[in-house]
Amino acid sequence: MRTLQSFMHTILEIKPSSHSSPLSTPFPFGPFNSTTQRRWKKKPSDTAQTRLESRTRDLKLDKLTTHLHKLTLVLTLHRLISARKRGPFVSVQFMSRWKNIVGLNITVGTFLRKYPHVFEVFTHPIKRNVCCKIRKKMSDLIQEEEGFIRGSESENVGRIKRLLMMSVNGTLHIHALRLIRRELGLPQDFRESILGKYTNEFRLVDLEIVGLVDRDGELGFVGEVEKWREKEFREKWLSEFETKYAFPINFPTGFKIEAGFREKLRSWQRLPYVKPYERKEEVKVRTCGGIERFEKRAVGILHELLWLTGEKGCCGTVGALSKGLGYRS
């Protein structure tokens, strides 16, 4: 032990602490213990799952998403029941085959009993089997919605034109528009009633691809966020440097603001980017700040998309247009 301590003092030049005994002094790495395994402190992993678990949830948004999912299930059942030509009702036993089509994780009978104000379950007077039909109040609401959509034809034309102006090459797949038809407020036959009717505005590039007839003549569109920026500039007396590229920011309850986060957010708010309706051939990502500008342009496109859908967009809405609008990484 004394020989080893002498070697440590002379060769390795390590001085023992005054409050520790010679036996408790840790051995450093050297020529005699270079093969000894040393335990390092494991860093916490940063994966998609850990980020998802540590995020701050917005309870209002979660509640709204749950209600939209339930409404989608109800409307899907209404569409399947209405497609039946034998009558306005369907047996519950036959409806059990639609469980996987609708996407239910419970039995159809249990789902029907949860919403008695929408579905009327009764026993057939002759066949004596349990049947179901949509209540009149719900049918009237759906017809009222369809009538409102038919009367908003000019607004629907404007929404499609805005989406085509935000797209990468001025075209979109009709199937992508069909997936978000209800969120955009389009009629079920929008291909014939809107795209086929307004041939001076839209043209079919291919069988399933639609584009604008004159894209250069539609450069007057301005994003909805520009109204908020103008209001901030006038009412709060902020400089143009602070508001020209800024977005409204609202943090959910319980959001943890770390050190330096506000400075990064302030710098991001001032960062210039290509706005959704601005024409530019490409956004150069591999430049200084190119990734941040590309991500901020994606934020601007999503902000405008949510405004076009009445702020009720979901993951399906965002994913359907990701390729056409160019915000998919």
Explain what the structure shows.
By secondary structure, this protein is mainly alpha-helical. Among the domains are: 59-139, Nucleotidyltransferase, domain 5 (2-Layer Sandwich); 225-250 and 258-325, no CATH class. The chain has 17 helices and six strands. It has helices at 2-10, 48-54, 59-82, 92-95, 99-102, 108-114, 136-151, 153-166, 174-179, 181-184, 190-195, 225-235, 240-243, 261-270, 290-308, 315-320, 322-325, and strands at 89-91, 119-123, 130-134, 171-173, 202-206, 209-212. A three-stranded antiparallel β-sheet has the order 1-3-2. The two termini are 61 Å apart. Mean pLDDT is 79; it is low at 7-14.
- Considering DSSP H and I runs of 4 or more, what fraction of the residues is helical? 40-55%
C-alpha Rg (nearest Å):
31 Å
Strand content: 5-15%
Q: Regions with pLDDT < 50 over 5+ consecutive residues?
A: 7-14
N-to-C terminal Cα separation, in Å? 61 Å
- The secondary-structure class comes to mainly alpha
Overall 3D form = globular
What topology, given as strand order, has the largest sheet?
A: 1-3-2
Q: Major sheet: size, sense and barrel closure?
A: 3 strands, antiparallel
Please provide the count of β strands: 6
Order of helices and strands: HHHEHHHEEHHEHHHEEHHHHHH
Mean pLDDT: 79
Number of helices: 17
Protein name: Protein ROOT PRIMORDIUM DEFECTIVE 1
